[in-house]
User: Fold this.
Amino acid sequence: ETGVTQTPRHLVMGMTNKKSLKCEQHLGHNAMYWYKQSAKKPLELMFVYNFKEQTENNSVPSRFSPECPNSSHLFLHLHTLQPEDSALYLCASRHPDGGMENTGELFFGEGSRLTVL
Amino acid sequence: GQNIDQPTEMTATEGAIVQINCTYQTSGFNGLFWYQQHAGEAPTFLSYNVLDGLEEKGRFSSFLSRSKGYSYLLLKELQMKDSASYLCAVIDSNYQLIWGAGTKLIIKP
Assistant:
């Protein structure tokens, strides 16, 4: 249990569907992240939110739409995805300041395994 | 460009020692992380190095040489539960995390 919960754990959708991934963290962190993890590839940063404000959009296609209503919740809305979007989507949170009391490491959820047919 | 290199896969025997290497070429350096990820599970933090030298934490140790752009994760007294992927990540000068593709470690009895 990392303190970061993602739902659903598995999702299968067609290319015309609309679905959402949800992430919730109970760690009191102010930074939240979406990553894409594909087999044998490095983690790809998608979006970063600090204090509910999006601070990074890593050239992600508009068919992925993030939403951060508060510091504890993060959503990834999915619309007209492509088969190559099939991957594990990981949410993470972090205390943004690092500092002496922590190394600023990321705390990850278990991911949502997405399959686009 | 920025790059993190680590072996794709390694195999070791239960009870033995294994060293997983990570080399990096990044624009600046502000620390290096090692994470463990079991299949179907979240990556979990193992270690953080920002100064040269060895950090020991139980059966796991992590080493850093900033001048060589090199780190390794040393796992001793291997157990079957150590079968997992091990991810190396570097914080660059813009405080962005640059990730390696991970090393899948297979432990055999």
Residues 52 and 64 of chain B are 5 Å apart (CA to CA). The interface with chain A takes residues 4, 8, 31, 33, 35, 40-45, 48, 87, 89, 96-102 of chain B (CB under 8 Å).
